[in-house]
Specification:
The protein has helices at about 10-55, 120-170, 175-220, and strands at about 60-65, 65, 70-90, 95-100, 105, 110-115, 220-225, 230-235, 240, 250-265, 275-280, 290-300, 305-315, 325-335, 340-345, 350, 355-360, 365-370, 370-375, 380-385, 390-395, 405-410. By secondary structure, the chain is of the alpha+beta class. A hairpin with a 3-residue loop joins strand 19 and strand 20. The longest helix has about 50 residues, at about 120-170. The radius of gyration is 52 Å and the shape is elongated.
């Protein structure tokens, strides 16, 4: 059988077919090469997401525990000066000189400022003039009394003589009566002079008292420190108009020792007594412990906080503590019945009251309603709603829901 020769058309189509075949293979290889890594990555992400979804949240837990029978309680306290007094002027005038300034240490009786008192000085001059005038008047009245007494003595002698003559019949009774009346006038004149003298003496006493009062006011133009202490405030300067009793000039505080005011919760008030030792710490003096002692107890509870005010004292010879500082006071107390405690960051406060999120032995979360006792700072007391050993979650987030499974981690680890 003789083969037929191929046509030119068939020969020309073969390279085109080969080209498109190769191109299709290349495109297919490129598509497969691009999809496989993407599919692999997607598969890995889906596997990781599934692993994360299946992973349990990790929570920090702490067990509810009883406080020690012999326990210490840390309470906030306010430092205050033993004495702190505002210094007012008792004299009107202008501030002439300022001897001390803010922060100066002063001793009792030390001059702090001087006040210029022109009006008071004029009043003192007038009072002295009035006193001198009344003293001069007194001298005149004493001379008048001497004259009145002399006239009285003469009138008495004359009447006695005329009385004897009248008894002898030498003079008439009318003449004797006239001498007796003159004696009575002289007596009245002498009594009046003595009364006037007494009035003048009272006037002098009044003028002396007035002068003494003004001189006392003048002495207040020198403002002095009432006790040893530190100037904690100054509100005047040279030239300031000073009105007695209205403008605070200085404030002086005695800062050694210092007083600490602490509100002790009702649970511990029976354990606090006078003379009890305590430890004092302030944030600005890290690592330092100051010793304090209870010196006063109010013996009355505040109806709002159910706490009792206790006053302590701490020596402050170096002045390292300042009035107004915030402090932590540690007091020792013996508890007749220990109370459960939990960390303060485990408590959830809301409309339903105080709650905590607990983790059971099945690692499931359960929310419990609790009743709080005293706030002890880092810890709080729980009077009901928990049992010893219950694990409570610190800082529970919104992801912590009822009955979800969690992994626990001890807070102390």
């Amino acid at each position: 059988m003789i083969a037929q020769p191929k046509s030119k058309t068939q020969v020309s189509r073969r390279p085109v077919l080969i080209f498109f075949t190769v191109l299709a293979c290349a495109v297919g290889a490129a598509i497969v090469g691009g999809l496989l890594p993407r599919l692999s990555r997607q598969k890995g992400l889906l596997a990781a997401s599934a692993e994360v979804a299946d992973r349990k949240p990790v929570v920090i837990v702490s067990p509810a525990r009883f406080g020690d029978a012999k326990d210490s309680i840390d309470l906030p306290g306010d430092l205050q000066a033993m004495i702190e007094s505002p210094i007012f002027s008792r004299a009107d005038g202008y501030l002439k000189s300022k001897i001390v300034d803010l922060g100066w240490h002063v001793t009792a009786g030390q001059l702090m400022a001087e006040i210029e008192t022109p009006e008071l000085d004029q009043q003192i001059s007038q009072a002295r003039a009035s006193l001198a005038q009344s003293q001069s008047t007194l001298k005149e009245l004493r001379a008048d009394i001497a004259l009145a007494r002399a006239n009285l003595d003469l009138a008495r002698v004359t009447w006695e003589r005329w009385a004897n003559l009248q008894k002898q019949g030498v003079v008439s009774k009318q003449d004797a009566d006239s001498k007796e009346a003159d004696l009575a006038v002289k007596q009245a004149t002498a009594d009046k002079a003595e009364a006037t003298l007494a009035t003048a003496q009272d006037t002098i006493h009044g003028n002396e008292a007035s002068l003494h009062r003004l001189e006392e006011l003048k002495s207040f133009s020198r403002v002095t420190a009432p006790f040893d202490g530190v100037v904690t405030a100054r509100d005047v300067d040279i030239g300031t108009l000073i009105t007695a009793g209205t403008k605070e000039m200085f404030r002086v505080a005695r800062i050694d020792p210092l007083r600490i005011f602490v509100n002790v919760p009702q649970t511990y008030v029976e354990e606090i007594h006078n003379g009890q030792e305590a430890e004092l710490r302030v944030q600005e003096r890290p690592g330092e412990i100051f010793h304090a002692k209870v010196t006063g107890i109010s013996n009355s509870l505040d109806t709002t906080s159910r706490a009792m005010l206790v006053i302590l004292q701490t020596p402050n010879p170096g002045g390292t503590l300042y009035p107004g500082m915030y402090a932590q006071v540690r007091l020792s107390a013996n508890r007749a019945k220990p109370i459960l405690r939990i960390p303060g960051d485990t408590v959830i406060l809301g409309k339903q009251g105080a709650r905590v999120a607990t983790v059971g032995s099945d690692h499931l979360v359960h929310f419990k309603q609790i009743t709080l006792g005293q706030d002890l700072g880092t810890e709080v007391e729980v009077t009901s709603g928990l049992r010893p050993g219950d694990l409570v979650i610190s800082n529970p987030t919104d992801a912590i829901q009822e009955n979800i499974a969690v992994e626990t981690k001890n807070k102390n680890n």
